[in-house]
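Quick sanity check, Protein kinase domain-containing protein:
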Amino acid sequence: MSDYRVSRRLYKGECTAVYQATCLRSGQEVALKTYDLRRVPSNTLHMIRREIEIHCQLHHRHIAQMYGAFLDGAERVVAVQEFGSRGDLFSFFRRRPGGRLAHHVAGVAVVRPLLEALAHMHGVGICHRDIKPENVLLGEGWRLMVADLGLAIDLLQERAVTRAGTQGYMAPEVERCPLKSAAADNKDRLDLAYTTAADVYGVGVLAYELLTGQLLPPPSPAPAAAKAAPAAVAGSATQQPPGPPPALVFPACVPASARDFIIAAVSPQPEDRPTAVQLLQHVWLAEAADAADQT
């Protein structure tokens, strides 16, 4: 830590903290994410190594760069990352009137670069698993950067079978997964495994929030017959078909193309959702770009 001058603390969690700092060798502003190994539960220690290994291999304009990591003494890991000088997306749009953005601003400045980052991640097998406004940073020139890969998983190396993410942004297939007490739990459960479609659902929720100022309504209850079905494995999540999609309400200013984009992205069935690459070709993003050019 002697190579860095810490300016302020940006975040404090139970086991982690994030600081704004300046590298004394290069003069570059960075974010230092620290992990207190004394407080990290033993069954999640593997996630620190996984996060750093995954993040270090990702190089994209819209993914916050991981510069490196080191041990600070015996009890703290420090990850050196790109700093979002304009804060996170949550703080930005909460300051906007009504807590929402015009559809062309949301499409061009947020959704398109977010999808570009996810298309890159998904193309190499990485699922982020925690897409939400707080994990989207804004840098110089308002460049968007996906950050916080603490829950990211390499689907080419292991199955995603854990309920992971943030309530309200988790896809139905993720919500149905059980929590785990050990890293290897449920890895043989093909019926629990989910895909990068979970990230697409998060994009849909975020887009809805940007355009309406509201979180997505919770899914409609599953049919009574499905509710009564017994669990296939004792103590595990019952794999039920999801209920009908939530009834979405949009302001009149949200165009039909944006509504179609969101409805497709938050489809209850993951196989019905477009991929990030497919959504980049959606007519809404083309219309948003045209509208932005005219303003």
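Posting the structure with no commentary besides this: The two ends are 46 Å apart (CA to CA).
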